[in-house]
Specification:
Bound molecules: flavin-adenine dinucleotide
Radius of gyration: 19 Å
Shape: globular
Order of helices and strands: HEHEHEHEHEHEHEHHHEH
């Protein structure tokens, strides 16, 4: 189903993100997570794309398996890093033939071991270039749906670290929408004011695409530190840190997880009250926290 139909049918959309695990032993657990979460009837699920190498094929395999064995529309992520136009066309064609209807188009981050990565190694420099290429694929009628792929792009309520100038950043976001993107899915954030302000600033910049809010319940203090590294710039409000510190002083990992779930549930309640277009849960391939949040929100 095209993302615009999904968003029109589910107000708000509720969706989950998975990553293809490296260890073969983790796949059975992931399939169980997907089966558990399928009972919540998500609007769609998305699957991340690696920085390079063999994990990239795993994204395709997981997406096709979800498409073939569940009722949930899968949305593969795709990045610019290192790709030629011909490679991207081959990937798009495979997804089109498998009946996949939507793609999240990203720039991606340079591989960890190449901090001075040379973007001229691939044909695309910014996500907007990839969006424009997918749009051309759509216009050439290479997808069975006459509208082609629905196209999503990333948004950063706290700002993207590479563009400290927030005015320029919104210009860059607008370029992605003008190139053909249909919706925005945000990076995780822990202060809803960042999201509401970002939504308002997008509207003032003439960006009308639906904005899906990315939420990640903190499950452990180690996970929180890891995420601060991965989602560069993630800002944890003092209120959340205080609650996590209280829980972790008891040496009870379950208490920390409960705090993370409670905080995320409160965040989601306020997002729903303020009519976000959707909420996207960063599940880290686990179902427990998401199911708890659904239960506490009466979803
Ligand atoms: C929802 C979500 C899912 C993600 N999934 C993945 C994933 O699966 N795999 C992965 O590797 N990464 C993923 N990422 C991370 C993402 O790839 C990185 O954060 C990346 O640094 C930015 O990607 P982008 O698509 O926003 O890039 P862009 O929109 O290209 O922006 C990147 C930076 O360049 C700036 N910029 C854009 N255009 C121009 C221009 N013309 N001139 C100058 N500056 C410009 C922007 O302001 C921004 O600072 C995800 C992020 C989000 C929010």
């Amino acid at each position: 189903m095209h993302i615009l139909d999904i968003l029109a049918a589910s107000k708000p959309s509720l969706s989950f993100e998975f990553f293809p695990p490296r260890a073969p032993s983790a796949w059975e657990e992931l399939y169980q997570t997907i089966r558990d979460l399928e009972t919540l009837s998500p609007s769609f699920v998305s699957v991340t794309y690696g920085a390079g190498g063999s994990t990239r094929d795993l994204t395709h395999d997981l997406v096709v398996r979800i498409k073939q064995t569940t009722s949930i529309p899968p949305v593969p992520h795709l990045t610019c890093v290192g790709h030629t136009r011909a490679e991207i066309d081959a990937i798009l064609l495979r997804y089109a033939e498998a009946g996949v209807s939507n793609i999240l188009a990203l720039r991606g981050d340079p591989p960890k071991e190449q901090p001075n990565y040379d973007w001229s190694q691939g044909d695309f420099r910014y996500a907007a270039d990839l969006v424009a290429h997918i749009k051309k694929f759509n216009d050439d009628k290479r997808h069975p749906d006459p509208r082609g792929f629905g196209i999503g792009v990333a948004g950063f309520p706290e700002g993207h670290p590479a563009t400290p100038n927030r005015v320029n950043e919104l210009d860059n976001m607008k370029a992605k929408i003008d190139a053909g993107a249909d919706y925005i899915c945000t990076q995780l954030f822990f202060d809803n004011h960042d999201l509401f302000d970002y939504r308002d600033r997008c509207a003032l910049a003439g960006i009308e695409a639906p904005l899906i809010a990315g939420v990640m319940p903190v499950s452990s203090t180690a996970g929180m530190k890891r995420m601060a590294e991965l989602a560069a710039g993630a800002r944890y409000p003092a209120k959340l840190i205080k609650a996590l510190q209280r829980a972790s002083s008891k040496n009870d990992p379950d208490a920390v997880e409960r705090v993370g779930i409670h905080y995320a549930a409160q965040q989601c309640a306020e997002l729903l009250d303020n009519e976000v277009a959707g909420i996207h849960f960063y599940t880290l391939n686990k179902s427990h926290a998401t199911r708890q949040i659904y239960a506490s929100l009466g979803l």
